C-alpha cells in the first residue's frame, strides 16, 4: 500500500507545474531563448517545425507572410508570439499575475480562432526545438505540465 501511495505521489508530482517545475522551465527557457539573432533563429525554427506538423495552419498567418518564414513581417510576428510565451513563462512562479496575463492572451487568441489542436501542435513543435537546442538537462515532464498550464489558460 505504501509503495502504491508513493508511486501515485511521484506521478502527481511529475504532472504538476509547481514552483520547482516553474523554476526549471524558466531556467531552461532563458538558456535557449537568449537574445537578438538567436531569438529570431529560434522563433523561425519553432514555426518551421509547427508548419511541418500542421501545414494547413499556415493560412492563418497570411496577414504576416506565413508563406515565408524569412520575411520581416513573419519574423516580427514570430517574435511577438514567443515574446508572449516568454512573458507567461516568466510568470510561472507568480500565479496571480500569470492568471491575468493568460486572460488577456485568451481574448486575443479567441478572436483569431486558434484551436486546441493547433496549440497542442505548437507545444509539440516547441518541445522538439527546445530538445534540439538544449545544452543541459531538458525536463520534458516539467515543460509539458507548465506549457499545459499556459495552454489551458489561453484555450481551455
From TrEMBL:
Residue sites binding heme b per the record: 109
One Gene Ontology term of the molecular function aspect: iron ion binding
Pfam families named among the record's database cross-references: Globin
GO cellular component: extracellular region; hemoglobin complex
Highest taxon above the source species: Eukaryota
Disulphide bond pairs: 17-146
Keyword Protease in annotation: no
Keywords attached to this entry: Disulfide bond, Heme, Iron, Metal-binding, Oxygen transport, Transport
Globin domain location: 16-156
Family: Belongs to the globin family.
Protein name: Extracellular globin
